[in-house]
Amino acid sequence: MFHGRDPIYVQIADRIRADVVEGTLREGEQVMSTNQYAATYRINPATAAKAFAELVADGVLVKQRGIGMFVSDGARERLLAARRARYFDDVLAPALTEARRIGIDGDELVERVRAALARDDAAASAAPADPVPTEPARTEVGA
Amino acid sequence: MTGFGVELRDVSVRFGATVALGGVTAAFLPGAISGLLGRNGSGKTTLLSTIAAFRRPSGGSVRVDGEAPWENPRVLAGIALVREAGDVPDVRVGEVLRYGAAMRSTWSGEVAERLLARFDLPRRKRVEHLSRGQRGALAAVVGIASRAPLTLLDEVTLGMDAPARYACYDELLADYLAHPRTVVLASHLIEEVDRLLEHVIVLDRGRVLVADEADALRARGVRVSGEAERVDAFVGDARVLRRETLGRSAVVTLYGDLGSDARARAREKEIEMHPLPLQDLFVDLTDRPGSADRPGGAR
């Protein structure tokens, strides 16, 4: 369930972020309570609470006192914007460093990127895209 | 906050010339599940026995829910210390449970019955005739069903097989969620209890080696590898637990905060960083140094 490489609360927060980005968890939808989370994933509730606190601080979740935690409005777009901002540093820069290290030249890189993008465009126009499911993929039990 | 907190100040326990606890200052937070981790002989059982007032400290002070537990009926009524060995060998399983019910106002007969069935414990058998795993399971049943404000579980899963151990962790967590209280879990099976813990105290040779939030501990144990000189520069003043070299590269295990920019700095220097599982961190923290094959070892 959890891997040993990152603190569990970080893994929980990452999973909820991923669920929001992919649309599995939709804006306004209620997420499990700390105790439900702890019971389901067999972890200390303080660990789950820590993940939720981080997500509230990041504006992904909002707490409604006495009711529970909900995915906040605009959470998906905010997460996407943050991931876009990190993309160049976290994904592209290491890939370019590696290319330089093993002697792939810039022209070849640019050519490959253009070809890959053209392929993706062709595939996208062939099949109509529907990135967000129209029905909630799962319903959560109330607290 | 529910549950009794524990505060220990400079607690020492000596048996003749042997120092079992050499000045332990630590706290177990009220309402939290804490892990008391340490190798065999590190003083875990002595510490728990001292908290439960089974034994009087040679020095220092013990406070449970703000009071000294020694000969203190109010506090003692709220402490349940259970150990795998079992303290009552010549009675039947059913009597152990009746005794618990009579002794404790917080006792849940319903939980005791359910767990008895889950662990398949024979009610009419004498404790001394149970297998080791069954004695551990009985200790767990008593520990959980007691619902004591301070529950001290001393290696109860010893001798239990893996399915029984996981059943024990699940039952403890489920009952804790429904009835929060202070739980101290002494164990050396760190990988198994890791995710149950909010707080961790590591004992080593009668002293506190580390006391921290479990998540903070997990974040501080890091293994870094790369070109030796770059790795050493990157590590700086952090506490090095282990350093191994292979040709021109080095693998260093360290414990400490590397700062929020650590990942960026590592990437720049082509250094790989891997967080350390709690179990590995524990092994490196408590491994006896002094073997000549470990240059730059801690301490």
Structural summary, described in words:
The complex is a heterodimer of chains A (143) and B (299). Chain A starts with 7 loop residues before the first helix and ends in a 17-residue tail after the last helix. In chain A, α2 packs across α3. Chain A folds into 2 domains: 8-73, Winged helix-like DNA-binding domain superfamily/Winged helix DNA-binding domain (Arc Repressor Mutant, subunit A, Orthogonal Bundle), CATH 1.10.10.10; 90-126. Chain A has helices spanning 8-22, 34-41, 45-57, 75-101, 106-126, and strands spanning 61-64, 68-71. Chain A is mainly α and 143 residues long. In chain A, a hairpin with a 3-residue loop joins β1 and β2 (68-71). Helix content of chain A is 59%, strand content 6%. Chain B has 299 residues and is α/β, with parallel strands linked by helices. Chain B has 2 domains: 6-205, P-loop containing nucleotide triphosphate hydrolases (Rossmann fold, 3-Layer(aba) Sandwich); 220-286, Alpha-Beta Plaits (2-Layer Sandwich), CATH 3.30.70. In chain B, the strands form 3 sheets. In chain B, strands 5-6-7-3-8-9 form a 6-stranded mixed beta sheet, sandwiched between helices. A 4-stranded antiparallel beta sheet of chain B has the order 11-12-10-13, with helices on both faces. In chain B, α4 runs antiparallel to α5 (132-146) and α5 packs parallel to α6 (162-178). The longest helix of chain B is centred in the middle third of the chain and has 17 residues, at 162-178. The two termini of chain B are 38 Å apart.
SSE arrangement:
The complex is a heterodimer of chains A (143) and B (299).
Chain A: H1 8-22, H2 34-41, H3 45-57, E1 61-64, E2 68-71, H4 75-101, H5 106-126
Antiparallel strand pairs in A: 1-2
Helix pairs in contact in A: 1-3, 1-4, 2-3
Chain B: E1 6-15, E2 18-28, E3 33-38, H1 44-51, E4 59-64, H2 73-76, E5 79-83, H3 93-103, H4 109-118, H5 132-146, E6 150-154, H6 162-178, E7 182-187, H7 190-193, E8 199-204, E9 207-213, H8 214-220, E10 221-227, H9 228-235, E11 239-246, E12 249-255, H10 262-268, E13 272-275, H11 278-286
Helix pairs in contact in B: 3-5, 4-5, 5-6
